[in-house]
Amino acid sequence: MVRDHHLAARHRPALRRAALRPRNGRCPVSAAPRGAGRPAVVVVGAGPRATGLIERIAANAPELYGDAPLDLHLVDPYPPGGGRIWRRDQSPLLWMNSLPDDSTLFTDDTVEMAGPVRPGPSLAQWCAAVRSGGIRVTPDVAAAVAALGPRDFPGRRLQSAYLTWAYERAVAALPPRIAIHEHRRRAVRLAGPADGRQQVWLEGCPAPLTADAVVLALGHLDAEPDAGQREFDRFAKRHGLTYLPPGFTADAGLGGLRPGEPVLVRGFGLAFIDLMVLVTEGRGGRYTEAVEGGAGELTYHPSGREPVLHVGSRRGVPYRSKIGYEPDAPRPPLPRFLGPAEVDALLARPGGFSFDADVRPLIEAELGFAHYHRLFAAHPERTRMPWPAFERRYAAGDAAARRALAEEAVPDAADRLDLTALDHPLAGLRLPDGDALQDALRAHIEADLTRRHDPAYSPDQAVFLALLSVYGQLIRIGDRGPWWHGFFSYLASGPPGPRLRQLLALSRAGLVRFLGSDTTVTADAVTGRFTARSATVPGAATPARALVEARLPEPTVARSADSLLRALHADGAAATPAGLLAVDPADGRVLDRAGRPHPRRFALGPHTDARSGGAFTRPRTNAPAFRQNDASARALLTFLTERAAPPAARPRTARTATREDRHAADR
C-alpha cells in the first residue's frame, strides 16, 4: 500500500506539480492566481502541523466540498513538510526524540473524528518501504535508512525526509481543482473584518494575499526577551560576556562558548541535550565503548575545543530517559478517572473550576490507576491482595486513602507511585560540595537508565500511556497552568537512553558539571561575571563569562517574536492567563476577548491553549493533534461551502450546529 500511495503521488496531473513550485523570493502576483472568484485559504506555517491540516482537507473535501475550486496558500520561509524545526538544514548529529515506530503523521481507527481515516506509513514503515525500493529517495537518505537499527533513534534529517514525503503525498491527494501555492516568505500582518475576506501581508511584498479564511499553524516561535533576559543581555554587553536567551538550540550562535571555559546552563531538558551534542561531538569529540561482562560504558575523547557545561534547573536532574523495552502486559483501560464524562462535568460547572483543586487530583488518580493496573497484571507476585479488591478501594478513596492502600498492598516502596518524589527528586537533599553532587547525580542518572530499560518496572510504561491519555482529555479544558506541561515533558518527553549514557561519559570526563536543584543565576557587578548557585550545595557559587538559557521560549502571544501573532493579540484576540492564544476547542477558531469565535481565523499548535503533544505522534493513540486537524479542516470546508451556497440551500452543518453539538462530535 505504501508503494501505491507513492506512485499516485508521482503521477498526479501536471497542474499539481506546477502548483508545488515555490515562489521563493517573488511576491505573489495577485491574491487569486486562477481568477478573482476562486475561494482561497492562507495557511501560515508549512511544518508538520500544516501538512496534517492539508491531509485532512484532502480527506474531507469529497464529502464537504465536492469538486469546487480552491487555492491553498502556504506561507513559510522554510521548506514545506519539515518547516523550521524539522528542516533538513541542521546538524546531522541531532536526533529525533522518538523511535521510528513511534512517529506517524497519518490517522488510524483510534482517532475520534468525523472525517474518514486515510492510513499512511509510520516512519518505521516508510523506512521499510525505502529499503524495499517501494519509495525512492536521495542517496543520502537511503544511506541513513540503511544504517538505522530497529532500536536506533533517527536523525532529524531523516525525519525531515519523511515529513517532506508526507507533505507531497497530502498535496497529491487533494482534489484536482484544489491548488497549492507556496510562498517562501514570512507572514507579517493579518487584517480583515469578521464578515469579509482577510488580508495577509508577506514580508517585503507591497500587496497582501487575500483569502476567505486564514489558519495559523505557526509551530514553535521565537520570543522577545522578558525583563530579566534583557537585563542579562545588557550586563553581558557591558562586560564582554556571552548570553544566549531561550531559543531553538540548532539556530543558536554557539561561537561565543570558548574552549575550556565554564558555561552556565539553565535548563536540563531536550534543549540542553542538543547543546551538549553540538559543543562536544559537534566540535570534534568522539565516544568509544568498552564492553566488560556484557555491559558497556562510554568514554568520551575530547577534541580540546569543548567548553565545560555547568548545568542546573529547578529539578536539578535531566528529563527521564525514554523507555527501552516493549510492553509485557495489556494496556491499562484508559481513561478511567479523567475521561469525556469528567471533562463534561468540569466544563458544565456554573462557577467554573480550579485546575489545581479539581483537575490535578483526577490526573494523579489516572496515573496511579495505570501504574497499579500494570503492576498487578504483569507482576502479581509483588502485591498482597487481589486486583479487584485493590481497584474497588482505589476508586472509592481520596489521595490519602490511595497512598495508605498502596502501602498495604505493595510491599516494596520502589513499586509504589510517588508523583511528588518523581517531580522533585532532589527535594531536601543537601550535599557538602560539588564533588559529592557529581557522584549523586551520576548515581541518579544510572538508576533512571537501569529502571527505564528493565521490563520488571513496566508500570512506568503504563504511566506514560496514562500521560498521553490525560493530554488528550485536557485539550478540551484549554489553558492548563504552568505545572502540567512541564511535568508531562519531564516524564514523557525525555531523551533517548544513549544520550544519557553520553551525558554520564561527559560528566566523568569533567566536561559537564551538575549544579543541583533550584538553580539561580545572578549578574555579579563586582566580578563582572554570571554566578550560579543552587539549593543542593548551600554556599557554593560558580562564576562564568557565558550563560545559556537551554529551553524553548514560552509561547506567549504578547512577547512572541512573530509580529503577526502579536498584532493579532493587540487587535483583540484573546489570550489565556498563561499568555496562550485562546481558541475554540471544537474547531480551533480564534476567540476574541468576549469569547466569540472568529468565523474566518483558525489557529493550531503550541502557541494556542489547545496545544497538543506534537504535530506527529505515536500510532494508535487517538492523537489530539489529528483530532484537531480534522475538526478544523471540516470547519474550513463547511464555511467555504456555506459561503458559496445560496442562503435557502444552506444545510445545518458543523458550522451552524450548537457548541454542545460540536463538543459531542469532537468526543
TrEMBL record:
Domain of life: Bacteria
Annotated region (Disordered), positions in chain: 596-622, 642-667
InterPro entries assigned: FAD/NAD-bd_sf, HpyO/CreE_NAD-binding, L-asp_N-monooxygenase_NS-form
Residue ranges of every copy of the FAD-dependent urate hydroxylase HpyO/Asp monooxygenase CreE-like FAD/NAD(P)-binding domain listed in the record: 42-220
Biased composition (Basic and acidic residues): 657-667
Pfam families, alphabetized: NAD_binding_9
Biased composition range(s): Low complexity: 642-656
Matches recorded under SUPFAM superfamilies: FAD/NAD(P)-binding domain
Protein name: FAD/NAD(P)-binding protein
Organism of provenance: Streptomyces benahoarensis
Top-level taxonomy: Bacteria, Bacillati, Actinomycetota, Actinomycetes, Kitasatosporales
